[in-house]
Design brief:
Blueprint lengths: L1 H21 L14 H4 L3 E5 H7 L1 H40 L5 H55 L3 E5 L14 H11 L7
Parallel strand pairs: 1-2
Organism: Segatella baroniae B14
Keywords: Lipoprotein, Signal
GO biological process, one term: protein stabilization
Length: 196
C-alpha cells in the first residue's frame, strides 16, 4: 500500500514539474477588445434589393415589359394549342364516323402531327427569346446599379456595400442601410431607356 501511495505521489510530482517546465512564460491572451487597424477603418453599407426592384424606375419599367411579353407568349401558345386540340377532336370524331378514307385519315393525322411539332418549336423559340430578354435585363440592371454605386461611392468612401435580399444577412443595423439614397440616385440618373 505504501508502494502505491509512493507511486501516486511521485507521478503527481512528475506531472506537475512537466507542466510548469513546458512554459515558464505567462500565457498570451489575445485582447479582442481592440480591432486591427484595417478593420477599424472598414466602412460598410447595404442596399435592400427588394426596394430597388419595387422603387427603381428602370426595374419597374422593364419588369412590366417582361410581364407583358410573358403574357403574350402564354396567350399565343394557348390559342394555338386550343386550335390544335379542336382540330384533333374534330379529326377523332370524323374517324369514328368513318368520314375519311384511310389515305385521307393518314394525311390529316400527319398534318396534325406537323402542327404539334410546329407548336412545340414555337414554344421553344419564344421561351428562348424570353429567357434571352430576361438575361439581358438582369445584366443591364446589374450594370446600372454597379455603375451608379461606383459614382455614389466616390464621396461616401465605403469599403463594402452589400446587397440584402430577403434574409441573406442575418443581422444588419439600419444605420448602415443606404437603400433610399441609392434608389433616389438611380432614379435621378435613369433616362428611361427601357421604353425605347
Amino acid at each position: 500500500m505504501k508502494k502505491n501511495l509512493f507511486k501516486n505521489v511521485a507521478f503527481a510530482a512528475i506531472a506537475g514539474l512537466a507542466l510548469t517546465a513546458c512554459n515558464k512564460q505567462q500565457p498570451q491572451v489575445e485582447d479582442k477588445t481592440q480591432a486591427p487597424a484595417a478593420a477599424s477603418q472598414l466602412k460598410i453599407a447595404y442596399v435592400e434589393v427588394d426596394s430597388i426592384m419595387t422603387q427603381y424606375t428602370f426595374a419597374k419599367e422593364y419588369s412590366s415589359l417582361l410581364e407583358k411579353k410573358s403574357v403574350n407568349i402564354q396567350k399565343t401558345i394557348a390559342q394555338k394549342g386550343q386550335a390544335l386540340q379542336a382540330a384533333a377532336a374534330n379529326f377523332q370524331q370524323k374517324i369514328q364516323q368513318n368520314a375519311y378514307t384511310r389515305e385521307q385519315a393518314e394525311a390529316i393525322q400527319a398534318g396534325l402531327q406537323k402542327q404539334q411539332a410546329d407548336l412545340q418549336g414555337l414554344q421553344q423559340r419564344l421561351g428562348n427569346e424570353f429567357q434571352a430578354e430576361t438575361e439581358k435585363y438582369n445584366k443591364a440592371l446589374h450594370d446600372s446599379i454597379a455603375n451608379y454605386l461606383k459614382v455614389y461611392n466616390k464621396d461616401k468612401k465605403y469599403s463594402l456595400i452589400f446587397s440584402k435580399q430577403g434574409d441573406n444577412l442575418l443581422y444588419a443595423d439600419k444605420a448602415y442601410d443606404v437603400t433610399a439614397e441609392v434608389v433616389a440616385g438611380l432614379n435621378k440618373a435613369y433616362k428611361g431607356s427601357a421604353k425605347k
